[in-house]
Backbone:
């Protein structure tokens, strides 16, 4: 990785059907990528970049052409692209690595970036996971289940996934329920990070997405927990320049 800034963002949910103008979000993201390209060494997308993504052997999801084209462009310029699978886009295989050189992460990662140690993940891998959620995830990650799913025509699988996502988002948007869920998830990530520091005291930054909130919390004198927000309402991201990590917004 060359010199430059490191960027972190999550939960863009490209292609979602529960916003009035999802294309506007894609254009806003592409514009932001264009502005940071000359000073970025790497961009870490911490999951749920897509609201739904499944790669058949010869078929990839329709849409996102502006975003994918911009990723290819900045990757060709030498910017590292890291994509973490989230709970919405778990089925990334070899298309993005082959086409744009992206690095796909299916599990949380420990890495050193510009002299500091980072623990990076979507957030659902280490936070509270009810039995029902863990069961669904185990099915989604099972290779045999993935092969069987791929035998279904895309017109049925994509329609099903989009309806499921829309229904889930609507049912979870009740303000009281949403806030309670977010607070619970923050507490679980705090507990995980504090516990992890007991055996990995050299981690300087824990950075997650998934919860759709913005948080910067000091865990110890040398360690912080960062949650990056989303690109549905906040349009937020974190940036690390080797001296300071800050949360910022795209306006």
Residues:
């Amino acid at each position: 990785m060359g010199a430059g800034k490191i960027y972190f963002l999550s939960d863009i949910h490209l292609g979602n059907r529960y916003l009035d103008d999802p294309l506007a979000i894609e254009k806003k993201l592409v514009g932001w990528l264009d502005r940071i390209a000359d000073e970025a060494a790497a961009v870490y997308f911490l999951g749920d970049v897509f609201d739904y993504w499944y790669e058949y052997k010869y078929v990839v999801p329709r849409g996102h052409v502006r975003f994918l084209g911009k990723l290819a462009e900045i990757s060709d310029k030498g910017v590292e692209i890291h994509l973490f699978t989230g709970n919405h886009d778990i089925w990334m295989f070899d298309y993005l690595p082959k086409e744009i050189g992206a690095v796909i992460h299916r599990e949380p990662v420990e890495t050193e970036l510009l002299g500091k140690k980072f623990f990076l993940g979507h957030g659902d891998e280490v936070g509270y996971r009810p039995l029902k959620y863990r069961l669904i995830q185990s099915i989604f990650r099972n290779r045999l289940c993935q092969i069987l799913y791929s035998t279904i025509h895309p017109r049925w699988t994509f329609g099903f996934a989009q309806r499921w996502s829309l229904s889930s988002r609507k049912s979870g948007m009740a303000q009281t329920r949403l806030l309670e869920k977010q607070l619970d998830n923050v507490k679980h990530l705090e507990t995980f990070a504090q516990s992890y520091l007991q055996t990995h005291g050299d981690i300087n930054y824990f950075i997650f997405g998934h919860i759709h909130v913005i948080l910067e919390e000091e865990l110890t004198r040398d360690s912080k927990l960062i949650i990056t927000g989303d690109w549905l309402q906040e349009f937020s991201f974190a940036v690390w320049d080797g001296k300071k990590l800050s949360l910022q917004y795209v306006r």
About this structure: The radius of gyration is 18 Å. The first strand starts at residue 5 and ends at 9. The mean pLDDT is 87.
